[in-house]
Amino acid sequence: MLKKILLFGFAGLAVLAVGILIGHFGIEQDNSPKWVRDLSQNVDESLIKKFIAEVDNMKIQENLRKLTEVPHMATTPGDEATVEYMLKRWQDKDSGLDAAWREDYRVYLSFPKKDTPNTVTVVSPSNAVLFKAQEKEKAYTPDQEDPEVVQPYAAYGPAGHARGKLVYANQGKVSDYELLNRTLDLSGTIAIVRYGGAGRGAKAINAAPFGVVGVLVYTDPYDINDGLMSDENETYPHSWYLPPSGAERGSFTSDFGDPLTPYLAAKKDTYRIPEENINGAPPIPIQPIGFGDAQALICELGGSAAPTDWQGSFPCTYNFGGPGFRDASTYRDSEVKLDVYNAGELRNSTNVMGVIWGSVEPDRYVMYGNHRDSWVHGAIDPSSGTAVMLEITRILGEKVKSGKWRPRRTIIFGSWGAEEFGLIGSAEYAEEYISKLSQRAVAYINVDISVFANATLRASASPIAQNVIFTASKQVNAAGSSSVSVYDNWLKYFNRTSPTYGLIPNVGYLTGAGSDYAPFIHYMGITSMDLSYTYDRSKTRARIYPAYHTAYDTFDYASKYIDPEPLKEAVKSFRNAAANLDRVIHSSDLLNETPLKARRINDQLMLLDRAFVDPQAFPNKYAYRHVIWASRTSGVATFPGLADAVEKARTTGLKEDWAEAHKHLSIVTQAISGAAHTLTEVHQ
Amino acid sequence: MLKKILLFGFAGLAVLAVGILIGHFGIEQDNSPKWVRDLSQNVDESLIKKFIAEVDNMKIQENLRKLTEVPHMATTPGDEATVEYMLKRWQDKDSGLDAAWREDYRVYLSFPKKDTPNTVTVVSPSNAVLFKAQEKEKAYTPDQEDPEVVQPYAAYGPAGHARGKLVYANQGKVSDYELLNRTLDLSGTIAIVRYGGAGRGAKAINAAPFGVVGVLVYTDPYDINDGLMSDENETYPHSWYLPPSGAERGSFTSDFGDPLTPYLAAKKDTYRIPEENINGAPPIPIQPIGFGDAQALICELGGSAAPTDWQGSFPCTYNFGGPGFRDASTYRDSEVKLDVYNAGELRNSTNVMGVIWGSVEPDRYVMYGNHRDSWVHGAIDPSSGTAVMLEITRILGEKVKSGKWRPRRTIIFGSWGAEEFGLIGSAEYAEEYISKLSQRAVAYINVDISVFANATLRASASPIAQNVIFTASKQVNAAGSSSVSVYDNWLKYFNRTSPTYGLIPNVGYLTGAGSDYAPFIHYMGITSMDLSYTYDRSKTRARIYPAYHTAYDTFDYASKYIDPEPLKEAVKSFRNAAANLDRVIHSSDLLNETPLKARRINDQLMLLDRAFVDPQAFPNKYAYRHVIWASRTSGVATFPGLADAVEKARTTGLKEDWAEAHKHLSIVTQAISGAAHTLTEVHQ
């Protein structure tokens, strides 16, 4: 049943993506006289209907089965098997693709030792082991017992042995450790923290200055299982909830891409920075554990009760720790011991690429990507996306092979390697091909995961891509419905009121680096979108994908010190330019005008995101160049550099911090003005 | 007589530039059927001949007279008068230009105080003034007596009062001060140095760590007057040689652009760095003086004789200084006193812009620029260039006005302000419009100075622009000749043997930041050229425009430590891509193919320089992003980052310096690979 609904979701995403790929990017020309017709390759509705009719759920299911036969963590034999499977599919002359190939990079990954697993124990003063956390998750199906399943670990966390009294540090934010530090001496302690609130690596980076020697991290049922204190009867395989032994693996560095070759493609001979210079890696041992084990530790802690917003779903009061366990506990006076054996090594990671050349504008690329590596079997993350991508290439390829259709622009497919270690495959690809991609890529579409039943579309995108998604989503019916469109269903779950268009689906922001869109939008400024099917947020409060909606608030404070007038002027000129370009598009008689006019206007649209790229904006944030969508620490969604700087200045009140805020105001103003120049009619 | 030959040079440059502006950028299409003909706008030879015939020497002369009526140092009333003159010319509806406007920036300039001139004196122990250097140059014509003539000074040099024993420090290089420091205690001394060998500001920056408290700088007759020890009968106005009181003014910062707003356009409200953070400004007082005064000081110095290569053209032995003067001198025991009153202020600097819109590709810009500000009257630098630019706009404008002709691509003219203070006008323009210019500029042509009689063309350019200059220079006759082309004349003076083309004129490199081409090629990666008419180098050894010719030498050393194989591979793939693109161009039947094909190939060519731009390549060199043409300190012409790093590693032998060299090898390799991707046929 679950599987059936899932497959509905897959098919829905496949037809939506087909619509986007062959649909409207920028403006199209009308279709006579003949030479204009040859150039225009207009998308007609019947063509889209034909494509949609050909999406085959059984084929997607078969793709998924093949892709998830064995665990395929990045660079393992299981991963290489998926590389070969994709290559076989795409290089088959019946595939219709014009070419497919592999791109290999030599990247630095971090793994636990198979023969010496990382351990977390409670040890008495006499060194008796009183408790041992599960080394591996409990298997509920035979394939989960595969010896290739990697134990939960913190990739890029250092090897080391730490032992100390336990404290509970909420989410491991700086403010969490500061609060603890007011009443406790944290030096020599082990902190247990829950996921959320701070980046994975940051939980250890924030801890170290307080003298904390090791960190345990787990997922609280409050954050992931809707607060159910979730015994095995309530969780997977009985529901979609996380079981007690489930532990989130992950990359614990702060930058994306191969950590030893920032800004450079990781080829065999490429210069590599020393391992100790990896940016944002945890300085102290850190290990993820299941919430079953976390409960066994946290509910035994002594000390005062933690504040209300630190409490989770365990049936006990979360105390700070004495430090250490309470006197009534069997662990009284015992310490937590953390033994981590992670080690880094250079490994071969592969992207599999496929291409269908455009008939009219082969040098304009619409790109579609999905990572291939998983932490374990990856049925959902990422193979659901890969299965859909394979079905899309099958359908488009068949049409190309038949000789009846070819896209106007080139379509490039990317199956990225080593995403789970920090978007490594896509980032290395971006670094290697930045010149060409900056010059030619019209847009990048990322499909990572298609999740959960009762699905609705979830889309994050550059604003310029919003209409492309709206148009495509209106052409496809929602899962299981013959009358409700994906658009209407989406509108029901995620919506907002636009001053111009009224109630429309809420397209999210591409902030952060959650998936492979990051190198495209942040590093290269290429218009991007990230698509998935997701769960009903009205029925769950699972902690992912928080929305941000309070841009500009901080300007009330900044205006005391800095004149925001030039920013307002820049925004105004940008608005005028955009409105004017819209008029040009709608008043143009492209039928009788030079075909270069359509190209020119399309170029203006294509390059709009590029105008917001400023390599000087964030000198300390690797690969973040987009002044609107870069990552931030403050809670404000837009203008991250400015928001962070203003927040800091508000906190410190220092003149030099206000100067930095002023600098970011100038950077943002200049970028918006540049974008306005890009959109302004070219005769200006 | 001199004037007449000069004007021949001007006219030659005007017709050459016209040829380039309306001539071949990239490939053109053939001219039937009609729709292709409409798009192609082919340049026919007769059109070029017609343009050439219309160049009017008398009009250039009149332009020059108007432009040089008064001194027009940047932002002074004289400068504003030239702004208004250019605007009047270009905005006149009879001009034929489609539009002309001013762009104002608020920039930080540095001036001496009019009522308190900077002074250089020799002061006895009893404070008697024994000698005073001339505050202003001697006037030989009435206009040189204009009170607006600014006294010689070091722009951005600090105000201050320094007094100490004099030493002669050759060119003020680090190695010069080191040599002096071996036998002398430099602390508390004043150093006198000659121009050349090190940047202007560097002469003071290098001095300060040795305890030197002030610097005098002059131009030795050896370096500028062919070694003649040049009394007033031999120099201007009797010849083109520099008179004894002539002193070179200049900007003494190391970066270009407004020094307070790096990377940001200097608008009214733009964030400004603190003045004390200006990069590369002299830390101690420094003042230029004439060589007449320099002789009076140097020939009195005590101490040992300086080495042969420190000797100049004065009729005495150049000694190091005791420190101070020799015992037999009337200045014995006296000190040199340097009183500098320079002060910085925010001033309004103006670029004047003019445009002729392209008929077919209005969103592709061919740009032509020349700075407008001078240190004094600027008859040669820059008004010779401005006079030529005005004649070019007159000729093109008349054709546009007649309705008979319009260029295929847009031509933008820029009359830059405040170049003498560090390319400020062009750099601020680049910072403000980088998005649009990066996307649309096909090429930038810079014409700063047209110098001296017996002129030959001197051209520095991106290699991709070489053929454009060759083609245009073959269509124009050399000054005063009816049979020898500019090309043939040029070939006589500057030539090299190309392995492919045999003997051809030697096109120089656009390294460094000598004029307004720097923001275009270095900061934005736009194909650029710098044109002028220059003197016969076989007859003079004046110190400007040194050539560099020893690329790759240092690889012998690097290969001991680093495998250069990937670089060779990248160069090979670049060569193959270039050769292949050449084949595509020559085998294409553009007549019967889509017009977008020509556009696509032109885009590949246009974006080639952009592919070499890497914002991460030189984190400590403001605005230098082009990995081939950036500035360097080592003597090797190409791959500046790599050459500097290898030279440093060779000197120190340190492992970390070789690691840095390896990093630059990777950066260069990646850039060349990226350029190859740009040129590779788009179906690959």
Overview of the molecule:
2 copies of one chain form a homodimer. With 684 residues, chain A is an alpha/beta fold. Chain A folds into 3 domains: 2-110 and 345-534, Aminopeptidase (3-Layer(aba) Sandwich); 113-341, Glucose Oxidase, domain 1, CATH 3.50.30.30; 555-679, Transferrin receptor-like, dimerisation domain (Transcription Elongation Factor S-II, Chain A, Up-down Bundle), CATH 1.20.930.40. The first copy, chain A, has 19 helices and 19 strands. In chain A, a hairpin with a 5-residue loop joins strand 2 (119-123) and strand 3 (129-132). The first copy, chain A, starts with a helix and ends in a 5-residue tail after the last helix. The model of chain A is unreliable at 1-7, 26-42 and 541-561 (pLDDT under 50). The interface between A and B is large, with 60 and 60 residues. Chains A, B: Residues 163-249 form the PA domain. Chains A, B: It is a single-pass type II membrane protein. Chains A, B: InterPro entries: PA_dom_sf (IPR046450), PA_domain (IPR003137), Peptidase_M28 (IPR007484), Peptidase_M28B (IPR039373), TFR-like_dimer_dom (IPR007365), TFR-like_dimer_dom_sf (IPR036757).
